Amino acid sequence: MNIHNESGFWQKMRTQNRSPLKVVPKNALIGSMGGFIAIALLAFLTDLTANAWIMAPFGATCVLAFGLWDAPLSQPRNIIGGHLISTLVGLIFFHLFGRGFWVMAIAVGLAIGLMMLTKTTHPPAGADPLVVILSGSSWSFLFAPVLIGSVLIVFIALIVNNLDKKRRYPTFWY
């Protein structure tokens, strides 16, 4: 492969195209409200109980669930399945091998591959193995915050997204 060939490698990075994203103020408002409600509920539950119900990747999940609700990677299967698979991979690798840089790298790579193979790809979930390994999470992390939190986000997305007559969420379940 000749990376200096102008019509090859570097040429692929040039474009005159513009972002296909459209600005729709009503969608921005609904997305903001959905993200607010989901994170407020998870943060409130964390303050109310001794359990952690929230983790950083849930912020990015809210961007997809409420801002790009009709995208394939934003569907319930992807949100819940992606977080579960990635967290499980992180937990297995952490409990078997500890915190090494190679453990984090292998866990993230494997999580990506498994999400793709199971049709549960959810980009925010790619961070879950890092969260698990860096925080030294216990096995219970898979249930709270991951399972319960992702199910609550999906539940709120089902309500908020379908309040708008022009939105339909989910676009698929399986």
From TrEMBL:
Methyltransferase as UniProt keyword: no
Residues annotated as transmembrane: 28-45, 52-69, 75-94, 101-118, 138-160
Pfam families on file: TM_HPP (PF04982)
Domain HPP transmembrane region: 25-170
InterPro entries, alphabetized: HPP (IPR007065), TM_HPP (IPR058581)
Keywords for the protein's UniProt record, in alphabetical order: Membrane, Transmembrane, Transmembrane helix
Name listed for the protein in its UniProt record: HPP family protein
Organism of provenance: Paenibacillus chondroitinus
